[in-house]
Design brief:
Elements (H helix, E strand, L loop, with lengths): L6 H6 L7 E2 L5 E2 L3 E4 L2 E4 L8 E2 L13 E6 L4 E9 L10 E9 L4 E10 L3 E2 L3 E2 L2 E2 L13 E4 L3 E5 L5 E7 L11 E2 L16 E5 L8 E7 L5 E7 L3 E5 L7 E2 L5 E2 L5 E6 L14 E2 L5 E11 L1
Antiparallel strand pairs: 1-11, 2-5, 3-4, 6-7, 7-8, 8-9, 9-25, 10-24, 12-23, 13-16, 13-18, 14-15, 14-17, 17-20, 18-19, 19-25, 20-23, 21-22
């Protein structure tokens, strides 16, 4: 997991290293949405669009209350954030609890819960950059990736979903069988994504955490398996990473890491055909993501 040696370095970074993303991951077209009879204006921090919850009080930029707590699964840290009504423009007071647990079977388990006193969009995710070769050891292009999805949401040049859901078959997005990330990435470099920055519609039922992706480093034999309850997975190959000094002086550059971000449908507030991301008062947002560490 790429990262930094100090909390101050994380606070200064704008690359979302290892953070909880919220209230809404990914992009919202036009930095606004309608809910009922009200239009909510958000900050435009990705061109004319809204990205990852906003520029100043998004979930990666606030201090969370934290408490270490033992559990039956292993040592845990419980993080809490109480986001007030209209923070970053979103309606409702949103109370969020995220619990990180290191389990006895070599997994990082992340459990999310959120409740709101008003209807509001909620789409939380985790944004670790993985490089299974180690900190500062080249790019992830030689890593092998498998994604349990045969469809993806098509996007325009601003990476905003068009509403179409298309098949991966015959495209550079087809990772149904493991293959190296670099094998077809050049076909996407002239697109708005400049590589992989795409939302996959995951296959199979997800009432409990199910396999979504597998990342393999053939050189070391290290493997990360991702299990999630969410319907979608954003795969981002670090195309816009800036030269950065990370842990123990490691140097990161373009494509030094890859993000596997479980999420709801991106820009769902503008696409009624997508599964809704609106959390109603009285309901509870629940999600479990598991990164299981293993080897070949």
């Amino acid at each position: 997991m790429l990262g930094f040696d100090t909390a101050a370095d994380y606070a200064r970074s704008r690359m979302y290293f290892g953070c909880t993303v919220g209230r809404v991951a990914n992009r919202i077209r036009g930095a606004s949405f309608e809910l009922g009879d009200t239009t909510f204006k958000l900050a435009a921090n990705d061109g004319r669009n809204h990205l990852h919850g906003g520029p100043t009080r998004s979930f990666d930029k606030v201090e969370w209350d934290a408490e270490a707590r033992p559990s039956e699964l292993g040592p845990s840290v419980v993080f809490r954030h109480d986001s007030p009504h209209l923070e970053e423009g979103y309606p409702g007071r949103l109370e969020t609890v995220v619990t990180y647990t290191l389990t006895g079977d070599d997994a990082l388990r992340i459990d999310y819960e959120a409740v709101s006193d008003r209807a509001t969009p909620v789409n939380l995710t985790h944004h670790t950059y993985w490089n299974l070769s180690g900190d500062g050891v080249g790019t992830i292009l030689a890593h092998e990736l498998q994604v349990v999805a045969d469809r993806y949401t098509a996007v325009d040049d601003e990476l905003i979903p068009t509403g179409a859901i298309e098949l991966v078959d015959g495209t550079p997005l087809d990772f149904r069988k493991p293959r190296t990330i670099g094998s077809r990435i050049a076909e996407l470099e002239s697109s708005g994504a400049r590589g992989y920055d795409h939302n996959y519609v995951l296959s199979g039922p997800r009432s409990s955490p199910a396999l979504a992706a597998r990342l393999i480093d053939p050189a070391s034999g290290r493997v990360v398996e991702l299990l999630t309850m969410r319907p979608c997975l954003q795969v981002y190959s670090g195309n816009l990473m800036q030269p950065t000094t990370g842990k123990v002086g490691a140097r990161y550059g373009v494509r030094s890491g890859i993000c596997l971000e479980p999420q709801g449908y991106p820009d769902a507030v503008h696409h009624p055909a997508f599964d809704s991301v609106i959390l109603q008062p009285g309901d509870v947002f629940r999600e479990t993501t598991i990164f299981r560490l293993t080897s070949r």
